[in-house]
Amino acid sequence: MDQISQIRTMIQPVLEQNACSLYDLRWVQDGKMRVLQVSIMHADGSMDIDTCALVSEGISALLDESDFISHEYFLEVCSPGAERELRTPQEIAAAVGEYVFVKLKDPKAGMDSVKGTMTAYEEDGIVIEYMAKAVRKKIKIDPENIALIRLSVKI
After folding, report:
1. Residue 88: φ, ψ to 5°
2. For a surface tag, which of 50, 51, 54, 146 has the fewest beta carbons within 10 Å of its beta carbon?
3. Where are the domains positioned within the chain?
4. Which CATH architecture has domain 3-78?
5. CA nearest to 63, candidates 14, 20, 96
6. Do 68 and 10 contact (CB within 8 A), yes or no?
7. What is the pLDDT of residues 124-143, one digit of tens each?
8. What is the 8-class DSSP label of residue 144?
9. Could you tell me whether strands 74-78 and 33-41 are parallel, antiparallel, or unpaired per DSSP bridges?
């Protein structure tokens, strides 16, 4: 088991105790400092600073006690952000009704990307409702044609 997998297993009780789940866990290089970045969220996709602080304290205590990481590092506990990537079919399905950005592998209807509200998630694709020159339109996108899909902030 690699180090990230071991850390993931080690911190799971802290996440459960604070009613949140792990979105991402990775090492990031920030100048000369290695940063253990722990991205967390509640079941509804939200996150707050108080929960981040509690989880940070719990994880920090666990890692310090175990002395598992031999080198110097900085622990960063954060939310995955308002424009987080949707990485699994479950995350995509849960985003129905949300405003999303989709980057296409192959352009469709003259577009290489689309921003709009995901109105449906089906096995054969997602449906995005978007505005084009003040006209409301819909496009169905095959899952194989999605290069990237993420939540987007509507401005």
Report:
1. -125, 160
2. 50
3. 3-78, 89-151
4. 2-Layer Sandwich (3.30)
5. 14
6. yes
7. 999 999 998 899 999 999 99
8. G
9. parallel
From the CB of residue 105, how many other CB atoms can be counted at a distance below 10 Å? 13
> Going by C-beta distance under 8 Å and a sequence separation of 6 or more, which residues neighbour residue 152?
83, 99, 100, 101, 115
Q: Which two tokens stand for residue 59?
A: 């994880």
Identity at 86, one-letter amino acid code: L
Asked if 121 and 96 count as a contact pair (C-beta separation under 8 A), the reply is yes
Q: Provide the CA 103 distance to its chain's centre, in angstroms.
A: 16
> 89-151 — its CATH code?
2.30.30.180
User: Which amino acid, 48?
Assistant: D
Residue 59: alpha-carbon gap to chain centroid: 20
Spatial CB neighbours of 145, under 8 Å, sequence gap ≥ 6: 104, 105, 106, 108
